Amino acid sequence: METGSIRDDIEPLLAGAGLKLVELVVNQSKVSTQVRVVVYRPEGTGINECSKAHKLVLPRLQTLLKQEDFHLEVASPGVDRHIKDTREYGIFIGRGIRLLDKTTGLWTGGRIVGADEASVVIVTAEGELTVAFDTILKARLDYSQEGA
Fold it and tell me: Most exposed among 21, 58, 59, 111, judged by the fewest C-beta atoms under 10 Å?
């Protein structure tokens, strides 16, 4: 089963519990299967949220993967997560971020206030800035920017 279809199945399950699915990675080999799920809740993502997600996701994954025995890891994104997918910008609206521009090599920091399929909007000390995804070399969450 493809990760995308598993994501489509798991995402609403977690949303019903107030959690957002940030990342889903399924690694299958001949001898084992490992699944990593990263969940987020804007009010805070701690051990209780990870435990809740684990309890919700485990039986569904057993059905989807047609396996009883696999390793499931559920984690929070952490305060300095590297953004791996453009859909994460929308998940982290309200959070601080630092972006590295491909052309200038300069970092820009601010707070995410919006995102669509092509760009992210951040508020910096100088004002609102729209940054196209194709100009971003790297991005990571940065809680120190949340006052911007």
Answer: 59
**Could you tell me the sign of the dihedral formed by the alpha carbons of 5, 49, 46, 66, in that order?**
negative
Residue 28's domain comprises 3-75
The residue type of 59 is P
Whole-number Å distance between alpha carbons of 127 and 65? 47
pTM as predicted: 0.88
At 15, list the tokens.
């949303």
| Helix, strand, coil tally for the chain in percent (to 5) | 30, 40, 35
Q: pLDDT tier at 147 (50, 70, 90 boundaries)?
A: low
Q: For residues 9 and 66, what is the distance between their CA atoms, to the nearest angstrom?
A: 14
